[in-house]
Design a protein that fits this description.
With 212 residues, the protein is of the alpha/beta class. The protein is built from 8 helices and 7 strands; from the N terminus they run E-H-H-E-H-H-E-E-H-E-H-E-H-E-H. The protein has a single domain, classed as Isochorismatase-like (Rossmann fold, 3-Layer(aba) Sandwich), CATH 3.40.50. InterPro entries: Isochorismatase-like_dom (IPR000868), Isochorismatase-like_hydrls (IPR050272), Isochorismatase-like_sf (IPR036380).
Length: 212
């Protein structure tokens, strides 16, 4: 346990794909349950902001020509589906998650692999596929800041959060899954995360650590 136990004071809070097009009721690619976990995500964000600890919002952007889209969704985008398209409101973080310093996404900057500052110790980054580490500078960004523990929340556990947690574990980060602050969580998935040393907990467990 000593190798996998969270170090809360050197942790980063990561939100995954909590954008309008995936989150809002009746959005074009709504992931059921994401809107419902927003209040828990907000409480986590508030706790991290109060402590001055880093926060990274990881997002998707689908170019309208489909050129950067996963092959399982590329045909739909090429046929005109508009999901998290650059320079659209659908690609933006949902309002509940935005800091008071939030500005609209600089999609050109993000697509080039840069991190966009959206608050004090708070950034947005783009990932081209399921995992947050795939063809991104996330690992180097975290190592430079002395982060060794990644706390995951957000949208659609079976796809992007699950893949990102496996990738984080592969890189010997300590990994936390806040199960009641993530959509589409299921019991077998929790068992799988436990099996690779992920610390699975609930919102109140994290908040307790932040109060001590």
């Amino acid at each position: 346990m000593s190798y996998t136990s969270p170090n809360w004071n050197t942790s980063v809070l990561i939100t995954i794909d909590t954008q309008n097009d995936f989150t809002l009721p009746s959005a074009p690619a709504e992931i059921m349950g994401t809107h419902q976990v927003l209040p828990n995500m907000v409480r986590l964000l508030d706790a991290y902001r109060a402590k001055g600890l880093p926060i990274i919002h990881v997002i998707r952007l689908y170019k309208e020509d489909g050129s950067n889209v996963d092959i399982c969704r590329r045909e739909a985008i090429e046929k005109g589906a508009k999901i998290a398209a650059p320079h659209t409101e659908g690609a933006e973080l949902v309002r509940e998650l935005r800091s008071s310093h939030y500005t609209s996404l600089d999609t050109d900057k993000l697509l080039s692999g840069e991190f966009q500052t959206v608050g004090e110790h708070e950034w947005v980054m783009y990932k081209p596929r399921w995992g947050a580490f795939y063809q991104t500078e996330l690992e180097a960004f975290l190592r430079e800041r002395g982060v060794d523990t990644l706390v995951f929340t957000g949208c659609n556990f079976p796809n992007c959060p699950r893949t990102s947690m496996y990738e984080a574990s592969e890189r010997d980060f300590r990994v936390v899954m806040v199960a009641d602050s993530m959509s589409q969580v299921y019991e077998k998935g929790i068992q799988e995360m436990n099996n690779i040393g992920v610390h699975v907990c609930d919102l109140e467990d994290v908040l307790h650590q932040k109060r001590t």
